[in-house]
Structure formats: C-alpha cells, structure tokens
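[[Encoded backbone]]
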Amino acid sequence: MDAQDLKDKIISDDKVIDILESLGMHHIKEVNGKYLTCGMPDGNRQNSTTVYLDNLRVEAYTRNIVDAYGNTDIISLVSFINGTYFSESMKWICDVCGYDYYGQEQKKSRLAEWVKDMWKVAKEGGEDDGEKLKPIDEKILNYFGKYGNPLFFKDGINYETQWEFGLGYDLNFHMITIPIRDELNFLVGVKGRLFKEEIEEWEDKYLYIQPCAKTKVLYGLNKTKPYIKEMNEVIVVESEKAVMQLWSRGIKNAVAISGHKLSKTQAQKLTHLGVPIVIAYDEGAEIGKDDKIDKDFYPNEFNKFLDTQEVYCIYDRTKKILDEKESPSDNPVKWNELYNNYKMKVRG
C-alpha cells in the first residue's frame, strides 16, 4: 500500500496510539477528539509533539522531523525516531498495526476509486505506475543455486560481488539468474541473462524468469543504502549489471532503475534518501545548446524531482568517451574520467 492508503487505514482503525506507544512516546493524551499530545522518547516535555487525528499531521515543537518532501506526518515521525528509511518506516508501522505491507489496498467504493484515479491522471500527466510489488518465496532460489560465472567476470564483475548479489543459473533457460530484491531485502523477482556472448536477433538477452514490478524497485538499494548515506550521494544507473560493476570496484553507493527512465515511484524513493542524486545512464543522450543537458534527453526525467532536489548527470558531452549504448560503468578508466570531469548539475 502507498503512504496515503496506510494513513487512511491507521485513521480508520484508530491505531495512532498503538504506533505512538510502540515508538516510546510518553504522556499520550487525546484532546477534544481532534488531536493527541505526547512527549518524545528521550525528551522531558510532556506535550512537545502534537498528532492530528484527521490527517496524521505531526507538529514536533522540539525536533525537526521534516522528510525529503517537506512532510511532517506519522511516517516522518517514525523515520526520525527509529532512524529508518521511508519504506522501512511504513513496514514498521504495518508490523505494529498488524497490516500486510505488500497487501491489497483497502476496498473503496467505485466512485472513490474513480475520483482517486482521475486525480492521479491529472496530477501525473496520465502515466500509469500501477504495478503491484509482491514478495515471492525465497525457496525459488534453491532451484537456481548460487554460482559465479565467467561471462560477468569478463564484464568487470568479480566473483565476490556475484556471490554477494546471489547470482545463480537456470538450467532450463540457460540463463544467469539475478535475484531482484526491494529495499527491505524481500525477494520480489528473478531476472535472467542469456548465458552467451553473441545474442541472435530472435533471442531475448534478458527476461524475467519470475515476474517483477520493476518500476517499484531500485535494484541494489537493500545493500547500498548505508554506503549512500556514508557518501552522501546516490548514483543511478540503468542496469543491475552496472550496480555490480561499480560494487566490484569499491563504488557501493549505486542503484539501478532496470530500464531507460525513472518511474514516479523510483523518483520518490530516491528523493526520500535525502542525498544528492547522480544520474549515470548509458550512452544515448543528446546535447543541447551551450554544452547543457538537452531537456529532451529522457523527456521530463529531471523534472520528476523536486525543485530543491540536488541532481547531477554524468554526460559525455564530447561524444568521444563512450561508445554507442555503452554504460559509463563498463570501463573503469572511462568511469573515472566521466565522474571526475563530466558530472553536470541539472537541478537544485
């Protein structure tokens, strides 16, 4: 469920006090059925925090709990106190309230659903990002095993990294298997890469052996999150392979979008990390006037972020460094040159 669905369910089920008690808030008191006052777990003031019961907005008078989107609500309060990422905070709330984080949304009337859908279309320009993310049984990985392979090793992914990311092999499809995990480390899909160097036109180089709502996932975030915080930067690449190539070289603050452009959910998850974002897509962008990024490069890609979000783009403006469709991560020498000399600020 998304954040608003979760908050609606908390309000409907009257679970606010359960959440505050589990957080360790003290002296919880309801006032006129409209809001709750309470104190922070490590604070002495008994009414330093106010939680409004109609929308779960939170006023924390002694702490700055604002999240990356400027929200101060029950979710940002949990993130502040527990020191957790946005998705982790939602999962924690679901566990406290007895909800299924990956479960179906609350049933709504057809009219309510129609209004909600129309509002989303108007706000988001008609794009549908409605794939449902669902965890799958971990036992599926027993079938594929855990194996390193010389094809990826030749492509700059050492065997230690292959093992770290759980690569295996599918004997039926003759494919390298890449487990896809969400930021909470739940297995949500398995991607296959055909185990051969020369791919025929009629062959699929990649396919999902176990389907995955890829627009809801930032590949690698389950492992790279602490390094992103340490480096105060997240590098965004297109492919899972690129994340592993960079990891093999000690660059562990990257995530992949598993495609050519960001979904709204991925943009939101990146924003919630609260760090500068560096987009490092494969070769294929067009350059605009005065050596600036052409806004037609991945239409509206940078506009998916807040105006205040600091966004950079690694861009080969000379058109001489990267080969056609080459990823910046493919060659360590090229990566260093691009990262150090061709990182351009495009937002924030």
Q: What stands out?
A: Confidence is low (pLDDT under 50) at residues 104-128. The longest helix spans residues 110-124. The chain has three domains: 3-97, 140-213, 221-347.
